[in-house]
Amino acid sequence: MINSSATLYCTTCGLGYLLCDQTTDYLTLDQAVAYAVNSADHALKTSNHDGEPNSYHEAMQCPPEERAHWHKASQEEIQALIENGTFELVQLLAVAGCSR
Fold it and tell me: Does any domain span residue 58?
């Protein structure tokens, strides 16, 4: 049987931990908002890829050295997709009224 003074002591310690000790581990609302805004801003900046081509066609319009870089990168990406079994090549179905 559990002693009531031990139960009271455990409850008091638990509440003390929740109410006092834990508050130092949390951000204030202002800190949390600042962190979220900075994180979103960083994510946006890294996802923009300013100045990079948006398509293979655009990449092939670059100067020869850069064009070779983009072509090699596209070949490596396609090879990785094949090696990882990401997709499967299938025969294109013939559809009435459409030409290939």
Answer: yes
Question: DSSP 3-state assignment of 92?
Answer: coil
What is d(CA 18, CA 25) in angstroms, rounded to the nearest whole number? 11
Q: Residue 28 — left, alpha, or beta (φ > 0 → left; ψ -120 to 50 → alpha)?
A: beta
**Total domain count, the chain:** 1
Within 1-100, residue ranges assigned H as helices are 4-19, 29-48, 56-59, 64-83
Residues 81-93 pLDDT 10s = 888 888 777 787 7
Q: What kind and span of H or E run contains 25?
A: none
pLDDT digits over 33-50, tens only? 777 777 777 666 666 667
What is the chain's mean pLDDT, rounded?
Answer: 76
**Can you give the pTM of this predicted structure?**
0.43
Q: Mapping DSSP to helix (H, G, I), strand (E, B) and coil, where does residue 80 land?
A: helix
Gap between the Cα atoms of 35 and 42, Å rounded? 10
Residue 60 lies in a domain: yes
